[in-house]
Amino acid sequence: MWRCILFSDQISNFDVTMWNFPIEPFTLYVNDVKKIVQSSILYIASCSLDTHSDLDILNTELLHNTWCHHFSLKQLYAYYISRKCSRQAQRLPLDGALINNKYQYKQYKSCLSTLLTNVYHDAVSGWLMLASLFYKTKQYRKALHIIRYSISKCTSDKLFFGLTLSDVHYQSLTLLSLKKKSISYFLKLIFVDFTRFNMNSTLTPEELVMEGWKGQYHIPSTAYAFFLSVLCHYHLNNVRQCQDSIQDLKLVIAERYLMSGVRFTAEAYTLLGIALQLFGDIESARKAFLQSLDISPDESRNSAAKRLL
User: Fold this and answer.
1) Which of 64, 70, 113, 278 is the one with CA 20 to 30 A from 187?
2) Would I find Ribonucleoprotein among this entry's keywords (predicted)?
3) What are the extents of the domains in the chain?
4) What is 220-309's CATH topology?
5) pLDDT tens digits, residue range 87-120?
6) What residues form DSSP beta bridges with 217?
């Protein structure tokens, strides 16, 4: 009974180390992980970094209090520096045609360097942002190489916001806790964050950009990986691979693979609609956009409505 009270959300900041109860380290480790993937407060605090230019100290303190057992303040800042690098890279101007002069080359290298610091907060989304840079600069084969690597990381033992832990996850956590790995190490290894594109991001694929659309894109990384694969193969005239990637995109949507929440599912259907539209299947694209709107009808947060016009 006391464990239920002690680990409840109502007293998530309760420091159990001040008591002499014999709590196993693994129990504390799993409890911290559950807070990361299931806490709505942590999710909101995490998303706030996408709309503020500097680290929010209040949110940082909130998260530190919640992750007190296996996440030091130093690790917490390192995690969010990695997250913030994505936002910073999306502000840098990029020319669609790669590196025609010294200035463009300098901007490209700066963006590349920033994105390489963006791969430490989760297992997939940071790499996909790097693939987006290669796509935007027409380095499609490099982008596909990164995409394949990212997809290889999207295994069933991965965690994401809103997930309920399964036996497979407990096995992975047992191994990590026995190795005495920190939560920050855990995040980089088995956590899959969603892919974020800020408003006016220079890394957003042109196919996603819409005139008059002023919202952000929060996209499940599994869906974005296959969508970006479709785009790369399309520009390389790889018809068969393009079709295969569309089928893979349909599959991850049908299974809602490593995605949670209606907004993420709706965004995935929007990506499918764009891919089908690009491939010339207009009727199927329309159905995908309608499905997206049926799931998430708020037109201020769902670009599918404008794509139907």
Assistant:
1) 113
2) no
3) 23-139+157-193, 220-309
4) 1.25.40
5) 888 888 876 555 567 777 888 888 888 888 888 8
6) 197
